[in-house]
UniProtKB/TrEMBL annotation:
One of its GO terms (molecular function) is kinase activity. InterPro entries: Bact_2-comp_sensor_kinase (IPR050640), HAMP_dom (IPR003660), HATPase_C_sf (IPR036890), HATPase_dom (IPR003594), Sig_transdc_His_kin_internal (IPR010559). It is found in: Cell membrane. The chain crosses the membrane at residues 12-33, 292-312. Its main location: membrane. The keyword ATP-binding does not apply. This is Sensor histidine kinase YesM. Gene3D superfamilies: 6.10.340.10, Histidine kinase-like ATPase, C-terminal domain. The lineage of its organism: Bacteria, Bacillati, Bacillota, Bacilli, Bacillales. It is a multi-pass membrane protein. PROSITE patterns: HAMP (PS50885). PANTHER family: SENSOR HISTIDINE KINASE YPDA (PTHR34220:SF7). Residues 313-365 form the HAMP domain. The gene is yesM_10. Keywords: Cell membrane, Kinase, Membrane, Phosphoprotein, Transferase, Transmembrane, Transmembrane helix.
Amino acid sequence: MKKTRQPFQISLFNKYLGLIVLLFIPIGLLFAYSNNVATSVIGKEIRNSNIKQLSFLSSQIESRINQTMDFVFTFSKDPNVQKYNGLNIWDDNYDWMQTRYMILEKMALQSGVVNIWPVEFTVYSQQHKEALSNTSTSVAYDEDYLNLHISKNWTYSEGTQDSDGMAFRWFYADSLGQQKLTGSSLVVGASFGASNIQNLLDTYKEGGQGDPLFYAPGQKPILNRSASPELAEELTRYLDGQTLQDSMQKTVELNEQRYLVSLVKSPQLDWYLVDPVPLDQILGPISSSRNLFYLSLGLLLVIGAFFSIVLYRDVQRPILKLIRGLKKVQLGDFSARIHAKANSEFTFLFYRFNDMSAQIEALIDNVLKERLIAQEATMKQLQAQINPHFLYNCLGYMINMAQMKDEEAVVKMGYSLSSYYRYITRMEKPTSSLHDEIQLIANYLDIQTMRNGRIHYSIDIPEEMRKHQVPRLMLQPFVENAVIHGVSKSYSSGKIRIVGHIAGGFCRIWVDDDGPGLNDEKLDMLNSTMKGPMQEDMGYGLWNTNQRIINSFGSRSSLTFSASELGGFRSEIVWEIPKDVKDVKDTKDAS
């Protein structure tokens, strides 16, 4: 039977798993896109917000510095200050003390107005070699110091405001617009310590995520009071190796973390406000939510795959078992059964399928047995019709030999003929030993040899094999076929060989002749008919014998035809040794 090719089909497991993956792919892509957009927008907002805050802080510093410088300029024009540096013409000591007092009071008043930005003011009189300051300590007049520090720009050097002695200073000399001493110059100085910057940095840090500092190349940076020294040190090393602009932002890795470093220059002080913002801490919740979503998506995929596997196990595999069972039945294997351990809805179908297959097998066996019985009856009827012709020929041979006074030939023919008919007329048992079958074949071939002198035969069957029970007349059709259709068809042939072999739980018998035989096409057709059902136009003898062998010894037994080594036709009979016979043999061997 030609097998029909099934079209390619995707299993339910692959379908559902593919649908789950296809469902998750757009969700994952859309989330990744939205997450990237959100991260980009937040990063942009962080950059803009950070640079704006730094610019605002820088403007605050500039505003306070400008206020200080305006006061210094205005204060230098104050009459009392001018009088302090004027000619040494005083009405009395009281007037001198009053002038000094007014100068100190105005400096203290200005310092009190901007108490969040304390500034030291000092008035230097070059003419009198004297200095006045609003500090608690007296300030000595040092002309060399003034010549060194008078400049249009603010400088950062040692002072008295901070514990480390560093302060920002600016000196204004009333010398007709020239920043230098002329011999009778009036100099007003202003200075403030790093603590002023630290106060602003602390206030700035309270409202942000960064760790700001005040930086100038070659100077020790001014840190906020809660700054991380390690981070400040690493950031300073990074800035020392950069070409700084008035305003810039860069993403830098510091202490194995990503930081957004924003930088704004203070024009008056020529220092930089620097704010490193830890991006990982700010964007960390977004990254955590993203990773949590991907983890949830992965778990959903695993759960979906698990349900697909459960569906495959509980639905598709039972369906596949049913399909395989139906295919076996379609090919004629009615012994197919489905074994199921699961207790589900398919168990009922499996039981019904097994019942159906068993009923069909029993029905086929019954029909086959009835057909074999009918064919057996037909065979016996035909044998009864054929045997008389065979008997007439043998009797004719005996008459001729008697007329020729060959008494030995007559006796031999009579003995062989009586033994042959005695065996074939005993129909009380369906089986017989292989030894008796071989004896029948020997009698038959002896008769044919006496009738046809060209026939020569040999029989080689092991004694162990001769004890086995086989269906009666199992070998007779093949030997008759070798005589009638083999050696009798050609005058140059006449050899018949019967060989038996036992091994591996199987018995084999080959019947060979040196007749004309069959070509490959006819041999293939003959072998195919043995595997198919009985047809009306085919001979009954060989097919019936094959069915008797299979019914007697099982489906692993067979009958095949091929070309013989002798040049003619070969019949090969193979049958499996019954289990009870093998068990008896194994017991005897063990004993």
